[in-house]
From TrEMBL:
One of its GO terms (molecular function) is hydrolase activity. Gene3D superfamilies: dinb family like domain. The keyword Cell inner membrane does not apply. Coiled coil: none annotated. It comes from Fibrella aquatilis. This is Metal-dependent hydrolase. The lineage of its organism: Bacteria, Pseudomonadati, Bacteroidota, Cytophagia, Cytophagales. InterPro entries: DinB-like, DinB/YfiT-like, Put_metal_dep_hydrolase_YfiT. SUPFAM superfamilies: DinB/YfiT-like putative metalloenzymes. Keywords: Cytoplasm, Hydrolase, Metal-binding, Zinc. Signal peptide: none annotated. Residues 34-168 form the DinB-like domain.
Amino acid sequence: MQDLDALRYPIGAMPVAPPLAAGQAQGYVAEIAALPRKLAQLVASWPDDRLDTPYRPEGWTVRQVVHHMADSHMNAYIRTKLALTEENPRISPYEEGEWAKLPDSALSITPSLTLLTVLHERWVTCLDALTDNDLARTYYHPGSERTYSVADVLALYAWHGEHHYQHIYRLAERNGWA
């Protein structure tokens, strides 16, 4: 049996983002832009038995992970826009584990793959236009009791997308589906 931490964090735990180096923001935006297509290429044609397989013991199923990514990235998009248009707004956290139990988490993954595609198109359009001042704008997250800059959000969601993609990809590798 594999180490649960390696299954839980296939690319390592979320790093604390240091200040962005020159050009790094564009790299993060490119990763965010590429995620929907990359994810769809991996899972769009999978049958239900694969989609309903947990990526690790006591973990979410592939289906739940795909729906979670849509939920999480919708929240990130809204939080980004709030940070860009308000002075350090207090955002609303959500219980992602509880969201993963709601009835829509049992749907086909097609709506979430479509949502990720169109959502990322809009989000990346905003991200591509960011100035250094925009990257420094912030929001306050009461759940983590932390202020996040838009630059932090770029790093976090580039990591988040790859983190969950690797959950699914490595499951596929272990089971001979890749």
